[in-house]
Amino acid sequence: MIFTLLGLVAIMFILQSVLGYGQLKDFNKNYYQMRSQNKVSIGRSKGLVTTGVVLLMKIDNKARILETRKMQGTTVFARFKKFEKLNGKHLLKIDEESLDQVDRFTRKAIRDAQHTYRIVQAGGEPPKPSSPVEKLFNLFNKKGEVSR
Question: For the domain bounded by 2-126, which CATH number is listed?
Answer without folding.
Answer: 3.90.1010
